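Continuing the batch. This is chain 6 of the set; chains 1 through 5 are on the previous pages. Same settings as before, nothing changed between runs. Recording input and output for traceability.
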Amino acid sequence: MSTTFAEIVEDVKQLTPAEKAELHELLRKYLIEERRREIRENAEGGLKEYRNDKLQSFSNVDELMNSLTND
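Output for chain 6:
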């Protein structure tokens, strides 16, 4: 399917107000699902690093900032 974004936008304009509201709700739910998936993947990655002793701890903010700028 090679529909362009502009064509999709034009198609959406033709929808009824009820259809637009339903599409809005679906998109909102899809975005929430994607964000949850991203958070889960980041958490799993963090747990993996923790289990492999690859996490660093810092006793002050300067050490943390130096670590962030040097990575």
